Amino acid sequence: MKKQMSVVIAALCLGLSASVCGTILYVPSQYATIQAGIGAAAEGDTVLVADGTYTGDGNCDLDFGGVNMVVMSENGPEKTTIDCEGTASEPHRGFYFHSGEDLSSVVQGFTITNGWVGWGAGFYCGVSSSPTIVGNIIAQNTSYGYYGSAGIFCSQSSPTIERNTITGNAATTGFAGGIGAIEFSSPMIVENTITGNMAGLCLVFPNY
């Protein structure tokens, strides 16, 4: 399987910048949690996550820490789930981008569910962080803060959001259960399916 996936990664590298796709780090065979793999990665590495449902410490609130890398599943979002297990008393989200990551930081091929935070329960993109979020299922997440944006929240950021399914997310007191962008954000939103959220998409304040 690893040999086969190495071929897939090599093909992916052809479509990304030359700095991407250095060493492949395997979760969980080499690193027990997704965050452990991320923490061990250098610029341009790939963290490859095997099929399964990932829960608990090290498998939510995932933070690249300013290192540009690819984090992807082996076999797509139907086979690989990040269950944040967030609640009002124990809030958690999927991914937290806040350290200036650029478009060569890629998250691909996960179902991200049960996030529960003030804003950005699936993905939080802030502080000039602009990752690439592609080919994921972002479902059944909840945000309760004023700006909500349970699926993907953008503040002063310009992520590429492409070919994701964003469904069943709720912003209970704010706007945009699906995608929300504020404060000079310029997300590139391409060929996503956004359905059944409370509500779908909202852009406020000067964004362009």
List the helices and strands and how they pair.
Blueprint: H1 2-14, E1 24-27, H2 34-40, E2 46-49, E3 52-54, E4 70-73, E5 80-83, E6 95-97, E7 106-108, E8 111-113, E9 116-117, E10 123-126, E11 132-134, E12 137-139, E13 142-143, E14 152-155, E15 160-162, E16 165-167, E17 170-171, E18 179-182, E19 188-190, E20 193-195, E21 201-203
Parallel strand pairs: 1-2, 2-4, 3-5, 4-7, 5-8, 6-10, 7-11, 8-12, 9-13, 10-14, 11-15, 12-16, 13-17, 14-18, 15-19, 16-20, 18-21
Report on the architecture of this protein:
The chain has 208 residues and is mainly beta. It has one domain (2-203). Helix content is 10%, strand content 32%. It is built from two helices and 21 strands. It has a seven-stranded parallel β-sheet, with helices on one face. The longest helix has 13 residues, at 2-14. The radius of gyration is 16 Å and the shape is globular. The relative contact order is 0.11. Residues 2-8 and 14-20 have low confidence and may be disordered.
How would you describe this structure in keywords?
Right handed beta helix domain-containing protein, globular, Beta_helix, single chain, Pectin_lyase_fold/virulence, 208 residues, 7-stranded parallel beta sheet, 32% strand
Arithmetic mean of pLDDT: 88
Unreliable runs: 2-8, 14-20
Write down the domain tally: 1
Shape: globular
Radius of gyration: 16 Å
Number of strands: 21
Distance between the termini: 45 Å
Note the beta-strand portion.
Answer: 25-35%
- The helical percent reads under 10%
Strand order of the largest sheet: 1-2-4-7-11-15-19
Continuous helix count: 2
Sheet bearing the most strands, described?
7 strands, parallel
Order of helices and strands: HEHEEEEEEEEEEEEEEEEEEEE
Secondary-structure content class: mainly beta
